[in-house]
Amino acid sequence: MSLLTRVRGVLIGPSVSVAVLFVSIGLFTVAFLAGESPPSQSPISAVTWSAFVSAFIAFGFVAVWLAVRRVSKALSRLVLPGYITFAFYGYFQGFVSDVVAFDFIRNRLFFSDRIFLPLAVVATLLVYFAASRFVTWNLTIARYTLVLVLALTLWNFSLWGLRQSQSYSFETERATTGVVLDRPDDLFPIYWLLFDGYARDDVLERHFGFDNSPFLDQLESRGFVVNRKAITNFMATGLVLPGQMELENLGVIDPVSARSLVADRDPAHWRFEESALARLLGDIGYRSVELSSERSTSVATRVFPISFYESTGLRALPPRLQLWRRSAGTGFIENMEATVAQSGAQDVLVFSYNYPPHPPYLFSATGPTSGPRLIQPDFKTRREEWQHKDEYVGQLEFVNSQILQAVEQIMAASPAPPLIIIQSDHGPASNWTEGKIVADPNEALFYERTSILSAVLLPSSCERSALEESNSSVNTFNLILNSCFGTQMPVHPDDVFWGNIGALTRYEDGVWSEVR
Questions:
Q1: 12 has pLDDT over 50
Q2: Cβ atoms within 10 A of the Cβ of 161, count?
Q3: pLDDT digits (tens, 9 = 90+) for 263-294
Q4: Strand, helix or coil at 202?
Q5: Best mean pLDDT range from 29-33, 147-151, 193-197, 434-438
Q6: pTM (2 decimals)?
Q7: SS3 call for 499
Q8: Tally of CB atoms within 10 A around 144
Q9: SS3 call for 360
Q10: pLDDT per residue over 408-441, tens digit each?
Q11: Gap between the Cα atoms of 67 and 434, Å rounded
C-alpha cells in the first residue's frame, strides 16, 4: 500500500470522522452554555478558551477510542456515549436535581458527585444497551449526527452573539425619566465601597459576640454619618445592587422590568458603567470606574470558563483536583489598592465591590491566612461556612483595617473633599440552619440578613439631614442625589422583600411576620 493511500485512508477513515464528531459535540457544549449565559459572563476570550479546553478533552476521548478499538470494536462503541455523558454531566445533574421535589434527596444525591457519578455511569450503560437493540451505529449515522450537531452549535453561537448587544426592556416608566442633576461648581470624587455580608453593629453584638463600635467611632470621627438602624430591602446581592445602581425599587416594579435590570450582572462584572446612576452622573462630567475583588486576572478562571468546567464531568473530580475552584484569594487586597489608586482624580465615580467579610474566610484579623479558597460552593457548604463565627469576625476585623486605611489615603490624596459611601448589600446568615435561604425566613435569620453597615461621608455642600429620611439602602442614592445634586428623587418606604422576582414576600417597614 502506497503512502498516499495510507494518508488518504487516515483523512477519510473512521478515526477522522469520530474525531470531528467528538470535537463538534465539545464545541456544542460551549455554544449551548454561551447561548444560555448572560453576555457579561461570556466575553470572546473566555468562550475561545473554553472551546480550546473542550477540543482538548475531545481529542483525549478520541485517543481512548483508538486505544480501546485496538482491543475490541464492540467496547469502543461505548466511548461515544461515555463522552456525551462526560460533556453534559453538569447539565444532566442540574436537570435531574431541578425536577426532584424533595430537598432530602436533592441535597444527599445531587450535591454529592460520589453518589451521582456511579449512577450516571450505570444510566449511560443502560441507555446504550437499550438503544443498541434498535439502532445500529455506523459512519453514515455519525455523519448525519455531525451535521445536526454543527447546525445546533452555529445556532447557539448566533444566539450568544445577538445577546452581546442585549438592551434593557421596561414595561413601566423609569424612575429617572426626566431627571437632570445640578452640576456643582466643582466636582467632588465619589466612592461607593461595597462589602458583601457585613452586619450591623447590634447584630454583630447579638449573634457574634463582637463589639464593632470602635470601628464605627473611627468613621464618625472622620466625619461619616453612620446609620445604626440601616437595613437592606432584599436578601440577595444580585437583587440589592442592580436596584441601587438603577435607582429603582425592584420590589414594586413589574417583574419583567425587574428581571431586565437584574439580568447579566454578577460580582465579576456588574456593568456599573451602564447603570442609570452612572449615566446621570456622567451627564455632568463624572467618569465611572468599576472595580471588583472577584474579577479574575486569568482567562482560565473567569466566570464563563468556570461555568463550562462545571457543566462537564470535570465537576466530579475531587475538590483538591478542581484547580479552577482554587485561588490565592488576594483579590480583596488588590481591589482596595486599586480603589485608593483612583484618589488623585476629581471627576471619578468609583464602584468598588469587595467579597469579604462574606465567606470563604481568607483573612484573619492580622492578614491573609494560608490555603486557597473554594470558588462557588453549593448551598450546603455556604450554610456551614456562615456558622464559623470566629472566622467571620476575624475576617471582618481585617476588612475594618483595610477600610480605615483606604479612607485615610483617599481623604489625604483627593483634590476635593470626597463623597464616600461605605455599605454592605446584606447581612450574614449564621441563623440559616435549614432549607433554602430564598424560602420564608425565620425571625432571627430575617433580622440578621437584612441588617447592614451603612456609613456616608458627605462634602460640606451637601445637606447631611437628608440621610435621616430613610434607613433602607434602596434610598441611599436617591437621598444623596437630592442632597447634593438638587433632584427630587422619590423616597421609598423601608419595606423588605424576600424571595425571587415574581414570587416576593413583602415585609412592611422591615418588620418580620410569620408567613402562613
A1: no
A2: 14
A3: 878 888 888 998 999 999 999 999 999 999 88
A4: helix
A5: 193-197
A6: 0.79
A7: strand
A8: 10
A9: coil
A10: 999 999 999 999 999 999 999 998 876 667 777 8
A11: 49
The three three-digit cell numbers of residue 138, written as one number: 455506523
Mean pLDDT (the chain, rounded): 85
Name which of 333, 325, 373, 376 is nearest 352 in CA terms: 333
Cell matching residue 152: 445546533
Residue 469 neighbours by CB distance under 10 Å: 12
Residue 420: its pLDDT value, please? Answer: 98
Evaluate whether 241 touches 13 at the Cβ level (below 8 Å): no
CB 232 within 8 Å of CB 249? no
pLDDT at 405: 97
Identify whether the C-beta of residue 132 lies closer than 8 Å to the C-beta of residue 8. Answer: no
Q: Which of 314, 327, 308, 429 is CA-nearest to residue 372? A: 327
Judged by DSSP in three states, 234 sits in: strand
Neighbours of 138 (CB within 10 A): 9
User: From CA 291, how far away is CA 326, in angstroms rounded?
Assistant: 21
Residue-level pLDDT at 35? 80
- Contact predicate 418/188, CB 8 Å: yes
CA 143 to chain CA centroid, nearest Å: 39
Number of residues assigned to the chain: 516
Q: 378: which residues sit within 8 A by CB, 6+ positions away?
A: 111
DSSP strand E in 175-302: where?
190-195, 225-226, 287-292
- pLDDT over threshold 80, residue 104: no
- 5 pLDDT higher than 50: no
Contacts 24+ apart (CB under 8 A), 318-322: 319/374
Identify whether the C-beta of residue 396 lies closer than 8 Å to the C-beta of residue 438: no
Strand partners, 500: 503
Report how far residue 229's alpha carbon sits from residue 202's, in angstroms, rounded to the nearest whole number: 9
| Residue that the C-alpha cell 474579577 belongs to | 295
In our burial notation (b when 16+ CB lie closer than 10 A, e otherwise), range 234-260 reads bbbbbbbbbbbbbbbbbbbbeeebbeb
- What's the rounded Cα separation, in Å, for the pair 464 and 466? 5
Name which residue leads in pLDDT, 117 or 326: 117
Inter-CA distances, 48 with 23, 43, 45, 51, 355, Å: 14, 9, 5, 5, 28
Q: What percent of the chain has pLDDT over 90?
A: 44
